[in-house]
Design brief:
alpha+beta, two-stranded antiparallel ribbon, elongated, single chain, 7 strands
């Protein structure tokens, strides 16, 4: 093979490599632009859309308190509807934001030592009005000193969605029980209701977004079907496991196991303690 021909092949290879590099740079710039657009979208969802709903919630809370003081059942009914609608929409926005972050790898993970009872009480406090609107009793029996080394925000999202789901599918005057137990290695959180329950086919579909299971609640509440899918992904992100036990007409029991991930901590008591500060919500 002549030297001239070898040089020609080398030149052709260099041109090909140059074209590929140019294309790679172009694709890189395009991806960077898409990433900026994505971040802008997250910003809009997180701030520009959430902020108005937070304001609506604050104002409707004030209005609801005013209406109750004046004993006007009709106004109270519609004000409570505004309040619950705003809460549900805000929850949907938060789920959409968290889902998008999870799918694009933008979701942060910041583990810290937390007290499990404090977190559960915080979520139950947020769901009080929702439960009272359906005359549902919501009980939590705290356990002794359960501490987790995990991401608090992710855990709160999981519990918020599971408790909301239980309220949605529990009949008026129903009952929901939250229980947490632990051993040396993991904690198990159970959220049980005596609601309408599910058949095996529904159980198979509820954690799969592609099936788009969006059943109406017992008060005809609507949803996106995203909450339970998000819970499953987030539990797995925390190295845990989520499953459900349910029968039609017999209620549902959603269970989560999470690793404790605690070093140099005293052994916690695996027994459930019925404390005086156990909470119950009644209308």
């Amino acid at each position: 093979m002549s030297i001239g021909f070898i040089m020609l092949l080398k030149e052709m290879d260099e041109k090909t490599i140059l074209k590929k590099n140019i294309r790679i740079q172009h694709d890189k710039l395009k991806l960077e632009q898409l990433n900026l657009t994505q971040n802008k979208l997250f910003s809009i969802i997180a701030h520009d859309l959430r902020s108005p709903f937070i304001n609506i919630l604050g104002l409707s809370d004030l209005l609801l308190g005013n209406v109750k003081e004046n004993d006007n059942p009709e106004s109270e009914k519609y004000t409570d509807l505004i309040n619950s609608t705003a809460k549900n929409t805000l929850n949907l926005l938060d789920n959409l934001l968290n889902w998008a972050k999870s799918q694009t790898g933008e979701l942060g993970f910041t583990p810290q030592t937390i007290n499990l009872s404090e977190v559960i009480f915080e979520i139950i406090g947020l769901k009080t009005s929702h439960a009272k609107a359906k005359n549902i009793s919501l009980h939590y029996s705290p356990t002794n000193d359960i501490e987790l080394f995990t991401d608090k925000n992710i855990l709160e999202t999981i519990l918020r969605n599971l408790i909301s789901n239980a309220i949605k599918f529990t009949n008026l005057g129903g009952h929901i029980e939250v229980v947490a137990t632990t051993d040396q290695h993991q904690v198990e959180i159970s959220i049980s209701d005596n609601g309408i329950g599910m058949n095996k086919e529904t159980i198979r579909k509820i954690f799969d977004l592609s099936t788009n299971v969006t059943l109406p609640g017992t008060a005809n509440e609507r949803g996106s079907g995203l909450g339970l899918v998000l819970c499953k992904e987030f539990v797995e992100k925390l190295n845990g496991h989520l499953w459900v036990e349910s029968e039609e007409g017999e209620g549902s029991n959603f269970n989560i196991t999470l690793p404790l991930h605690i070093e140099n901590k005293k052994e916690v008591n695996p027994q459930i303690t019925k404390c005086d500060f156990s909470t119950a919500i009644h209308n």
